[in-house]
Amino acid sequence: MSTVFRDLLKKIASGEHTGHNLTRAEAATATKMMLRKEATPAQIGAFLIAHRIKRPTPEEIAGMLDAYDELGPKLQPIAWEQPVIVLGIPYDGRTRTAPISPVTALLLAASGQPVIMHGGDCFPTKYGVPLVEIWQRLGVDWTGLSLEKSQQVFEKTGLGFVYTPKHFPLTNSIWEYRDQLGKRPPLATMELIWCPYAGNAHIIAGFVHPPTEKLFQNTLALRGVTQLTTVKGLEGSCELPRDRTAIIGITRTSELDETGNISIERLHLSPRDYGFTTKNEPLGTTEELIADIQGVLNGKPSDLMQTALWNGGFYLWRCGICSDMREGIAKAEELFTSDVVTQKLEELSSNLLS
After folding, report:
1. How far apart are CA 290 and CA 348, in angstroms?
2. Helix, strand, or coil (residue 257)
3. Which intervals hold domain Glycosyl transferase family 3 N-terminal (predicted)?
């Protein structure tokens, strides 16, 4: 048993009147001790559930990110003037709505905007469809690549994927606790804004509850990160919904505001204003999803194509490739119908095999 870890556990698990938040350094220490299994299983389980009940602070999440930076992998910088997009969707899969993020990543890469994704396999508590499985079904298997090979693919195609079970195996044991506890620990929230890239990055993070968005902003401000887009997205992802107005937070400056926080501009986008039906595409079988995605890549009109255009148009505009949403949507449609995105998928697949 680790007495050091026990003291950290006592701080967060002592209740409303006698408990205390961890400092950033203490949170980093606790995270490293859990990842390295220097704490006992009883201590780790108690810490994860106590921390969830207490709710993490920006300083604690910043410390967790510090630990990931120290122990985890990073793709190295490439020669690109604009920030690389990091789509943080490692959560625990999708169960209700059809995911479109791999298509969005292909679209951006085909437009010259590099993208990095990260995540793992089917995780508790939802045990939904993970993005890595969608990529596999499209002919792109990230799971067997070394980090060095992923770097090569990233440099050649503009698309990278950090597959945590292989590239960051220290995290594997932590997620075993998620099923046993029946709840996501704050580490799962932290991973949404984790940046496994050593260069200039623009972090895209999805959220469900407004306090989470504020937690992201304040945490990244402590780390000096100012390039952030937050999306109240589908199932906690950074995918824009079609059944309601999309609530988005964007940064317009690379400087912190007078309070030392990230200055966020609120954006509300209504799908109806752009001619889209107000309905999310439900998730059927994985086979049906892949068939629908392949239809999108081949430029075929469908409900999922509307989701692809809605999201693609936004991100083409947000990355500065297009001047506004309408131009972005038109550009996305042009790229899908001209086979440019399909060609990017083929290029990606061939580079993985070479």
Report:
1. 17
2. coil
3. 6-70
Q: Are residues 150 and 7 in the same domain?
A: no
Q: Phi/psi class of residue 240: alpha, beta or left (left: φ > 0; alpha: ψ in -120 to 50)?
A: beta
Q: At what angle do helices 3-12 and 24-35 cross, to 10 degrees?
A: 130
Q: Position of tokens 């947000």?
A: 318
**The pTM is what?**
0.95
Residue 145 structural domain:
80-354
Domain boundary among 22, 50, 71: 71
What are the distances in angstroms from CA 238 to CA 27, 117, 138, 233, 296? 26, 12, 21, 5, 19
For 54-75, what is each residue's pLDDT tens digit? Answer: 999 999 999 999 999 999 999 9
Give 270-277's long-range contacts (Cβ < 8 A, gap of 24+).
270/245, 270/246, 271/240, 271/241, 271/242, 271/245, 271/246, 271/310, 274/310, 274/313, 274/325, 274/326, 274/329, 276/242, 276/306, 276/309, 276/310, 277/242, 277/303, 277/306
The torsion of the CA quartet 201, 202, 203, 204, rounded to 10 degrees, works out to -150
